[in-house]
Amino acid sequence: MANSNVKPATGKLGIMVVGLGAVSTTFMTGVLMVRKGLGKPVGSMTQYDKIRVGRGADKKYLHYKDIVPLADLNDIVFGAWDVYPVNAYESACNAQVLQPKDIEPVKDELVNIKPLKAAFDKNYAKRLDGNNVKDCKDRWDMAQQIREDIRNFKKENGVDRVVVLWAASTEIYVAPDMKYHGTLAALEAAMKANDTVHIAPSMCYAYAALQEDAPFIMGAPNTTVDIPAMWELAEEKKLPIAGKDFKTGQTLVKSGFAPIIGTRCLGLNGWFSTNILGNRDGLVLDEPANFHTKEVSKLSTLESILVADKQPDLYSNYYHKVRINYYPPRNDNKEGWDNIDIFGWLGYPMQIKINFLCRDSILAAPLCLDLTLLMDLAHRAGRYGIQRFLSFFLKAPMHDYTKDEVPVNHLFQQYVMLKNALREMGGYEADEEID
């Protein structure tokens, strides 16, 4: 490592996950298998990717851990909250993502990951009916109980640091409202007044995490940390926050393929995206109010890559539609179809069809690992507030919309942001420009 002034990753790192369903159990089981040398962390940038540091004669290509002090997988301790009381082993079996041969060797460790009672409000996810739920007087009490959970987890497991990751279902859409979300004081007043319309349970988790010195990552499209009140708290507590929504299947394709159209100066008439999936996520998204939250995050990608102002001839009038259909037989094996209507020389039309038969949790698990390790790193590096360098992993990257900031959704520009942040934290020069 060069002259890095990042604190070392000493001691244990607690990763507390909200939601102990398909994504989180696939993540946990995978990490435990990799630790035993029984599996490979394929898809994880922190475990596989190498980036260039230095130029000319000083040029080297290094793994992230050789540039910055990342937490070791052996130092991770998992915790979780969930509305269903089953342990991580039972949940991994129920999820039917991984085969028994990949679960059984770490059964003992998974059985010991028992979910804490969830802070839950059925109005935010009507399709879920678990009974492992906290009894809360109001939203303020909800946040205090989560804070206590984090403190107890630290004490009982002897962990030095905690990162909190939301990998639970998508909540119904909460429109940011400055009256309630504009300042920390307004947010706290709304929590104490038990304003269940403007204060989502996820906000209580984020608030609690930040109050307990734990960076918070929003892996669903919920309105949670992407409000000025949370930015204020993150600044005050000097903590990094990231969100939102794991970029796994269709949006990953979109953020990588739209640049092909834009770079080649081809025109776009329309982009129709539809999905079928059957896991718990699909069940929750079958509720229109919950789907709307997802739709907002999935729609935002294209518009910031193919921009009418920059190329009015090519991108002024395209039609963009996103659909998600709940289809139980598929379980976690999601299928995403994209039909793209483009035009070329003299306006002649052409079509592109992409059919991505992906496994949602298999794509999400390495993102969970990368986001938690990189957020822990950012915290030790003294970075706080919105971590834009993590946009690469997220569907709707957090940005300051109060200042009309446009998020970077272009996959290869996001990758430059990621590499430059790692270079800087490793004590090297950030030497790539985003055009």
UniProtKB/TrEMBL annotation:
It comes from the Bacteria. PANTHER family: MYO-INOSITOL-1 PHOSPHATE SYNTHASE (PTHR11510). The keyword Transmembrane applies. Keywords: Membrane, Transmembrane, Transmembrane helix. GO terms for molecular function: inositol-3-phosphate synthase activity. Belongs to the myo-inositol 1-phosphate synthase family. It holds the Pfam family NAD_binding_5. Residues 249-361 form the Myo-inositol-1-phosphate synthase GAPDH-like domain. The chain crosses the membrane at residues 13-34. This is Inositol-3-phosphate synthase. One of its GO terms (biological process) is phospholipid biosynthetic process. InterPro entries: Myo-inos-1-P_Synthase (IPR002587), Myo-inos-1-P_Synthase_GAPDH (IPR013021), NAD(P)-bd_dom_sf (IPR036291).
